[in-house]
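Task: complex structure prediction.
Instruction: return structure tokens for all chains below.
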Amino acid sequence: MKRFPLHLALGFWAMVTAFPLLWAVTSSFKSDTEILTSPWTVPEKPRWDNFGRAWNEASIGQYFLNSVIVVGGALFLTMLVGGIAAYTLARYRFPGNRFIYYLFVTSQFFPTFLALVPLFFTVEQMGLLGTKLGLILVYATFATPFTIFFLHAFFRTLPSAIAEAAFIDGCTHWGVFFRVMLPMARPGLVSVAIFNFLGLWNQYLLPLVLNPDPENYVLAQGLAALSTSQGYQSDWSGLFAGLTIAMLPVLLAYVCFQRYIQAGATAGAVK
Amino acid sequence: MSVLTRPVERAAAPAPPAPSKRRKRNRGYGFVIGALAPALVLHVIFVVSPYAQAFYLSLTDWNGVAGKANFVGFDNFERLAGDSLFLDAIKNNLLLLLLMPAATIAIGLFLATMIQRGGSDGRSGVRGARFYEIVFFFPQLLSVAIVAVLWGFAYNPNNGLINGVLRAIGLDGLARSWLAEPSLALFAVMAVMVWSGVGFYMVLFSAAIDGIPREIYEAALIDGASGWTTFWRITLPLLRDNVQVAFVYLGMVALDAFALVQIMTVGPGGPDGATEVMGLSLYRTAFEYGKFGYASAMGVALFFGTLVFALVALRGNKNRTELA
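Output:
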């Protein structure tokens, strides 16, 4: 029992962490009156219709789909262009290699806010404001410096012997990248893909500025807009249901794959 | 965003050898150009060029009309120095920077030490360590916008979680309008930042403590060191680099804080500028008032603030780490 104070401390923080989340999930099953009168009791009977209302009338379903398309497209694009750029910078010598590498990685230190105004007009002039393609391109471009930074170090650690053998067998440079190096880099690719997925799925500032059309809202943006719009303040239960819909997939994926996800999410700091 | 890493060994991987040198080498350059072009083109259009333009725009009075940007020198910056709302924003960002990283790191370190060294013999992990880690880490996976919406509800004075719990345990007197009282609002926002950040740094520190050889702790225990002493004399010095990285990351979060403030607070940025942050001022000035030149000047100010912070935070550690 000597360990009791320790478990008390750990248990306390576990509760601080979990309680708001459980509270939101519980509230999503309540009626509006229950939420208003007894905010922290269990629902009398689960109200599944809250979820239907959130999904359809509050457009959470549409926002969810938009997020999947935009994040999926951007993730694919950044992994492809970032991966091959990282490989080239890590394993080929040519004039300007260092310069290009630093051109990418130093941009991570610039606050996004600094670029915001010119970025808005660049996207507008290209006719991409409020389009999914515009968001995909900007998301991918903003994720690429980290992708390059992380995979650059990873490609450097891979042995050269297999690539050399492939060259001798007449494999092209592209062939070596796609058939030899990319498969060998899989652990690194998984980590950086998870990291990028979380980062892109959680974007708020970029869609807020570049994606003003409510039909194209991504999930985080749509939910935030709902919670601050005056007209929707009355439908508490629907809002909680929307919040739960937004949290639950992440929660489930995390419980199933937590080791990979923790490794991926901390990829930036524990290299 | 990643800040610190050990320098990569140069000359580790030579270019792939080629049997017939000249022909292969030329094809190699073709490959290099083809492989780098897509990433470079996107980077120049959406990153390099906007950043470069921002510096120029900050010296103009541009309000969005094509071709009507007059060069005004440093006028925008002079106005900024007298803009009381922006000065409030700077003050609030600095307060966040001063308190939030320290609180997050302290709690993270405490929890990590408990988990890794809290076992009954004083040097092994505590029972249920994995469970605690999983729970603590979860907020890190939620979008900051989702976190903001969640806590916006939780702080609601009438039917929110916080006041609900306070009333339930008989502490009605402590119930407050958390986001509506000027003296509380910024701390309410700060608490959310700590809440969502602790788990991530706990996992980082926990992994680092796990990497410290157990013999060191055993030797200290034999010499009669208390848990407190081993923490100050062994764990903390060996985690110096990790703590520094955490401080830099968290500092960048503190200098941002936009999403939480914009979604959660009244105004947003209120009450009466109590939660105003630089990013919010910039966003409002640009996309609500259309003063793009002035907004760019705010961006430049934010940039130099971040730069100064990073240089100070990394000071004295040049030998062992390098930027990027």
